[in-house]
Backbone:
C-alpha cells in the first residue's frame, strides 16, 4: 500500500464544522436575497419598512425550517416522480397554519402583509431548499438549513426596509404598533422630525426597491472582495516564513 493510499484524507472545513458551514451559507455565502436572487417579489414589494420586512422574513424562516425538517423526515418514502407535489403540499399546509396564526394574534399586521403571506407557498426559495438540501440530508441539518436561509432573507428584508423607510420617510420601526399594539408607537424613531413632513416617494416605490437592492448586492460583493484580498495578503506574508522554516 502506498503512502498516499494509507494516509487518511485531511477533513475539509465543511466536514469539521458542518453546522457553521450551513449557517454561513444561509446568512452570507448563499444568501437567497443578494446572492441567489430568489423570491424577489416579496423582497421588493414588502420591504417598505423594517417591521413589514422582518415580519414576512420570520414567517418565511419558520416555514422553511419546519418544511425542511418534514421533507427530510419522509424523504426515503417519497417516490421521485411525485416529490415536488408532495413538497408543495407540505409547504402549503405550513403556510396555512402561519396564515391562521397571524390572522388570530397579529391581525393588523396580517392585513398589512396581505397576499404575501399565502404567497410563501409559491416562493421559490422554500421549494428550492426542500429540493436541493432537505431531500438529501437528515432532519437536524435540514431544519437548520431552512432556518438559516430564512434568516438570511430576513436580514436582507430588514436592511432594505431600513434603507427605504429611512430615506423615504425619515423614520425607523414605523408600524411597530401592528405587532405590539399601542405600546409599539413608542418604538418608532423619527430620525427626521415629524413636523418637517419629510417624504421621498421614490424610496417607497418599486424603482426604489430595485435601487436599494442593487446597492446592497454591490456592498456585499465589495466586502467579499476585501476579505479575499486580505486573505491573499496574509497567505503571501506567511509563505516566506514557511519556506524559511
Residues:
Amino acid at each position: 500500500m502506498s503512502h498516499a493510499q494509507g494516509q487518511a484524507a485531511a477533513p475539509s472545513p465543511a466536514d469539521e464544522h458542518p453546522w457553521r458551514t450551513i449557517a454561513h451559507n444561509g446568512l452570507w455565502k448563499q444568501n437567497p436575497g443578494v446572492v441567489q436572487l430568489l423570491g424577489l417579489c416579496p423582497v421588493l414589494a414588502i420591504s417598505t419598512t423594517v417591521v413589514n420586512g422582518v415580519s414576512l422574513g420570520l414567517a418565511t424562516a419558520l416555514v422553511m425550517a419546519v418544511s425542511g425538517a418534514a421533507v427530510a423526515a419522509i424523504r426515503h418514502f417519497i417516490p421521485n416522480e411525485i416529490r415536488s407535489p408532495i413538497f408543495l403540499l407540505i409547504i402549503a399546509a405550513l403556510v396555512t397554519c402561519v396564515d391562521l396564526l397571524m390572522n388570530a394574534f397579529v391581525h393588523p399586521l396580517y392585513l398589512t402583509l396581505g397576499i404575501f403571506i399565502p404567497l410563501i407557498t409559491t416562493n421559490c426559495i422554500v421549494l428550492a431548499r426542500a429540493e436541493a438540501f432537505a431531500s438529501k440530508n437528515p432532519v437536524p441539518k435540514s431544519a437548520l438549513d431552512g432556518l438559516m436561509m430564512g434568516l438570511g432573507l430576513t436580514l436582507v428584508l430588514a436592511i432594505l426596509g431600513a434603507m427605504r423607510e429611512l430615506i423615504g420617510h425619515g423614520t425607523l420601526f414605523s408600524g411597530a404598533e401592528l405587532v405590539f399594539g399601542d405600546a409599539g408607537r413608542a418604538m418608532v424613531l423619527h430620525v427626521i422630525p415629524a413636523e418637517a413632513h419629510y417624504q421621498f416617494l421614490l424610496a417607497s416605490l418599486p424603482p426604489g426597491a430595485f435601487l436599494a437592492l442593487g446597492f446592497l448586492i454591490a456592498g456585499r460583493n465589495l466586502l467579499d472582495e476585501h476579505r479575499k484580498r486580505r486573505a491573499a495578503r496574509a497567505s503571501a506574508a506567511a509563505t516566506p516564513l514557511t519556506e524559511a522554516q
Remarks:
- Residues 17-237 form one domain.
